[in-house]
Design a protein that fits this description.
By secondary structure, the chain is mostly helical. It is about 75% helix and about 0% strand.
C-alpha cells in the first residue's frame, strides 16, 4: 500500500512539477513552527545544541527505518551521486560550526540578514556548477525579499545600535563574525545547489540520512565547545513530548523540502526561504503578541509580493 502511494505521488510530481513549490512552502512553515515550539523548551534551561543533538539522533533512527523498509541503497550505483553525497556530507558538517561562531559575535538581526543571503549564493552556484541560466526576474524577487529582511531585522550596520548594545558588543570581533556567517551561508547554499546533481539518481531519504549523520558529528563538537556533559532525553513528560513533536515536525519538513529539490531547481526553490520570515512574523504577532513596527510591515509586504511572484512565475 505504501509503495502504491509513493508511485502515485511520483506520477503526480511528473505531471505537476510546481508541486515542488508547495512541498518547500509547507516545509519552511513547519521549520518555523518547530522553532516556535523550541522557544517553549527554553523554559527547561537546556542548551539548544543539546536539544538539537537529541532531535538529531531521533530523526536519524527514524529515517533509517524508512530507508530499510523501502530497500534504498546508502551508496547509489551512480558514481557522480556518490561523490555529491559525500561532498554534501562534509559541507553540512562544517557549515553549522561557522554559523555558531558567527552568531556569538553578532547581534541576532545582523546574523539573520547575513544567513539569508543564502538564495543569492544558491543561484550563483547553480549557474557556476550546472550552467543554469541566471534569470533577471529571479534576482529581482530575491533582492526584493532580501530588502524585506533588512526592514524586518533592521541590522545594526544599517540602522545603528543603542548605547547598551554597543557596550555589550564592543569587544566582539564583528568582522570575523560576519565572515563566518557569510561562509556558513555560502556553504549551505553550495549544499543545496548540489541537490541538482542528485536528481533522478537517488532517493531524498538517502540525501537526508547523510545530512543527519553530518549533524550527529557537528552538534557534539558544539556541545564540547560549550562544555555540555549532561545529556538527558527525559526530564519530564512535557519536555519529552515537545522533543518528540519537534522531531516529527523537523523530519516531515526535511522530507518535503528535500523531495521538492529533487523535482525542481534548487536555485528557484531557495528563494522561498524568505517565507520563513513571513511565517515567523505572523507567529510573533498572533501567538507571542510582539509589537509591530511600520518598517516590519513594509518588509512583510515586500517578501509576500516576491514570494507570490516566485511561485506563480513560469
Amino acid at each position: 500500500m505504501g509503495l502504491d502511494i509513493l508511485e502515485k505521488l511520483s506520477i503526480l510530481e511528473k505531471e505537476h512539477s510546481r508541486i515542488a513549490y508547495i512541498y518547500v512552502l509547507i516545509g519552511h512553515f513547519m521549520m518555523v513552527f518547530q522553532w516556535a515550539i523550541f522557544k517553549f523548551l527554553n523554559n527547561y534551561h537546556f542548551d539548544p545544541n543539546q536539544i538539537l543533538y537529541i532531535r538529531g539522533v531521533m530523526v536519524f533512527l527514524f529515517n533509517l527505518y524508512w530507508i530499510q523498509k523501502y530497500h534504498h541503497e546508502m551508496y547509489p550505483e551512480n558514481e557522480g551521486a556518490q561523490k555529491t553525497l559525500f561532498v554534501r556530507f562534509f559541507i553540512q558538517m562544517v557549515s553549522p560550526l561557522f554559523q555558531f561562531y558567527g552568531i556569538t559575535q553578532l547581534q541576532i538581526s545582523d546574523a539573520t540578514v547575513l544567513t539569508l543571503t543564502n538564495p543569492i549564493w544558491t543561484q550563483l552556484f547553480c549557474w557556476l556548477i550546472y550552467g543554469e541560466k541566471l534569470q533577471s526576474k529571479n534576482f529581482l524577487y530575491t533582492f526584493l525579499s532580501f530588502g524585506g529582511i533588512i526592514f524586518i531585522c533592521r541590522p545594526s550596520f544599517i540602522f545603528g545600535n543603542d548605547e547598551q548594545t554597543n557596550n555589550d558588543l564592543s569587544d566582539k570581533n564583528r568582522f570575523l563574525g560576519c565572515i563566518c556567517m557569510l561562509f556558513g551561508s555560502m556553504t549551505l547554499a553550495l549544499s543545496q545547489s548540489l541537490f541538482k546533481g542528485l536528481q533522478g539518481k537517488t532517493s531524498n531519504l538517502i540525501a537526508m540520512q547523510y545530512f543527519y549523520f553530518s549533524n550527529l558529528i557537528s552538534t557534539p563538537v558544539l556541545m564540547i565547545y560549550r562544555e555540555i556533559n549532561d545529556v538527558r532525553i527525559y526530564q519530564s513528560l512535557d519536555y519529552f513530548a515537545l522533543i518528540i513533536l519537534i522531531t516529527c515536525i523537523a523530519y516531515l519538513a526535511q522530507l518535503l523540502m528535500s523531495r521538492g529539490m529533487l523535482i525542481e531547481s534548487p536555485a528557484k526553490l531557495s528563494q522561498l526561504a524568505y517565507t520563513r520570515i513571513l511565517y515567523s512574523f505572523t507567529i510573533d504577532i498572533f501567538f507571542f503578541k510582539s509589537t509591530i513596527s511600520y518598517l516590519s510591515v513594509i518588509g512583510f509586504l515586500l517578501i509576500l509580493y516576491s514570494s507570490i511572484n516566485i511561485v506563480q512565475k513560469k
